[in-house]
Design brief:
alpha+beta; four-stranded antiparallel sheet; about 45% helix
Length: about 180
């Protein structure tokens, strides 16, 4: 789980709504507690990312990550998690910076696919292998949940409804014109 771009949640917050979060935080992000991605159109967007990965090359893993300690296993060695987290975070920041928040919401699957590809590229760069070796780690799947900051949730919903109404009026006008 990579929740660096998500808001801070207590156990009570997990079942709460965006409005509850906004009220609790006074409608503001809390620096040092709440995370967010900065998009190319200068919006903030929360992202909660889950990354599933496989260690493909155990020997290279032991040499490059576990430090040749054969007693360490991927399950007992927390050293790999910061590498995965760093790759996911770096890729998410770079991708969000060149896209609009709306495009991320509308093309969520495309964003997630690109994020998985960029994350894999970063991991391959962080954990290089020789010419005849298989990659150390493969990103098996990546999923993400996106949300507007709590204080902007109402405005985002209002804008979405206005956009839908606008498109509906255009379609209605075309129909009447025909």
């Amino acid at each position: 789980k990579v929740n660096d771009f998500w808001w801070f949640q207590t156990a009570a917050d997990v079942n709460g709504s965006a409005r509850d979060r906004a009220a609790a935080a006074g409608g503001m992000l809390r620096p040092g507690m709440d995370g967010a991605l900065f998009t190319g159109d200068q919006n903030l967007l929360h992202a909660n990312i889950t990354c599933m990965y496989r260690i493909e090359n155990a020997e290279a893993y032991l040499q490059r990550v576990a430090g040749n300690d054969v007693r360490q296993t991927p399950e007992s060695d927390p050293a790999l998690d910061p590498i995965i987290r760093a790759a996911v975070c770096d890729a998410a920041i770079r991708l969000a910076a060149v896209q609009t928040a709306d495009s991320i919401f509308k093309s969520r699957g495309e964003f997630i696919n690109e994020l998985q590809q960029k994350t894999q590229e970063d991991i391959d760069r962080l954990l290089p292998v020789g010419p005849n070796e298989t990659r150390v780690v493969t990103i098996a799947s990546l999923s993400a949940t996106f949300s507007w900051p709590a204080g902007a949730q109402d405005a985002a919903e209002t804008a979405q409804v206005a956009s839908q109404n606008y498109r509906g009026k255009i379609e209605q006008a075309k129909t009447e014109a025909n």
